[in-house]
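User: what does the whole thing look like in 3D?
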Amino acid sequence: MTKIDRRTERLTDALRRAGVRITRQRAALLAVLARAEDHPEAVELHRRAEAQVPGISLSTVYRTLTALEAQGVIQRHQFAGTPARFEHTETAHHDHMIDVDTGEVVEFANDRIERLQAEIAAALGYDIVHHRLELYVRKKARPGTDQG
Amino acid sequence: MTKIDRRTERLTDALRRAGVRITRQRAALLAVLARAEDHPEAVELHRRAEAQVPGISLSTVYRTLTALEAQGVIQRHQFAGTPARFEHTETAHHDHMIDVDTGEVVEFANDRIERLQAEIAAALGYDIVHHRLELYVRKKARPGTDQG
DNA sequence: AGGCAAATGCAAACGATTTGCAACTGGATC
DNA sequence: GATCCAGTTGCAAATCGTTTGCATTTGCCT
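Assistant: Here's the predicted 3D structure for the full assembly of 296 residues, as structure tokens:
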């Protein structure tokens, strides 16, 4: 069993557990999500799913994404000024760097930042429900390189 | 000269410097922004401005907010699942905690987190253009208190 | 006071997402 | 394996926050 198969199964099981039917359309979308190594938006996922189920509607994609998110097996990221992007949550928690020039998303994780966040919230009498840390970045100018 | 007056002047000057006319509507909105100690959304700012200029349109509010943001004298915050909120940038950089139950916004700043962010980006060959750190939080359960 | 570019209010367009609805279908039950 | 029906589909229309086109008004420089 490949990594992709394992992921697909995890997503499928999550829906089944929630009492949600696995239709052709949903199976296709789950496969697409399992295969994705990037952070695609809904329209892009729809485009990819259409390869397997021509005519699948965008509404169905959105509805299924919402269901998967509710089960906690995918995450919805709302980066600044762009449509929401999605990723499966098989991997451990991480934050994101977004290249403002290319839109490329790089993942990173840092325990010290996580701990500091919890401390700050605790000091003010709060527990963190979730957080969002996004670094909007630009490739460092290399000496002798024109960045036009 | 009060703190509010100083803030109003700063906003006004920023617009003038950008070659933007100070109309009655804009003067009202600038006063509202200068007076705001919270993080109001556009509709709320519009409501407050209407007290001074009845009939001021929401479009004008949005247009002026966009101009002020372009001049860097106010900031637009897009918190998860809510309309954008605005604040004047007179105070130093800070991040935000959003109470998920009440919508209340608390500001905080932490140098160590700022430094860690810069280190992380640098290690991957990036410079930070700007960042977004939002802690979505809930009041700590006090012992003996039922949280519904 | 006169003139013109910039700003206004309105209504209509916008883009991402959600929803109402009638037709269809998965999959448990017999 | 036929039956059944709640869950699901595709479509079109609605939604929400925000932006924009346009005809009219207005700051403000001369």
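In plain terms: Chain A has a mean pLDDT of 89. Chain A has two domains: 3-88, 95-137.
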